[in-house]
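INSTRUCTION: Work out how this chain folds

Fields: amino acid sequence; protein backbone structure tokens

Chain under study, with its fold:
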Amino acid sequence: MRRRAGDELISENLRNAINAFLYRSGSPSNKFMIVLATNTPQLLDIAIQDRIDEMIMFDKPSYKERSNILYHYLLKYCKPERTLLSKLKSYLKNPTKVFYKIKFINISQIDSDYIDDIAKRTEGFSGRELNKLVVSWHDAAFAKSDPVLDKATVESVLERHLDQNKIKRDWNAGQEEYFKLMHPKL
């Protein structure tokens, strides 16, 4: 392990990668753009932070955004094609449906008020977590002999995802405390 400015310990491989990046990105250029994405910007090397021209913060989705995301994925994964034209378009887009006899998932007992309630209950969920939630709803409904997504199925899957989200938040809170202990100067 080697030390860099700021006294943090890094491996020789990481040091070499940082130095290669710094060497290649030391002069302004209009021929390329580098986009960095991280959940932990405080861990970026200070010299790399110095090369960031513009930063954009993306928070977790708001209530309205969560509601829109849930609707989007419900329509994508669970709404059956009803007209012949929509079925044909679906089969052209996903020809494996014909060969694997993929069942369409019907939706029952789920209205806009219920989706809005779920959007409220999923505060703190990322877009990816909401996608995985709806995919899990689809899979749970698909596992039934009559593939219907109903409130009972939604609730059982939702409770598991709410529990998992709480565990992840607890882990992250622990990591933030550990980071503060290990890096008191930051």
About this structure: Strands lie at 2-3, 9-10, 106-107, 148-149. Residues 26 and 51 are 8 Å apart (CA to CA). The chain has a mean pLDDT of 81.
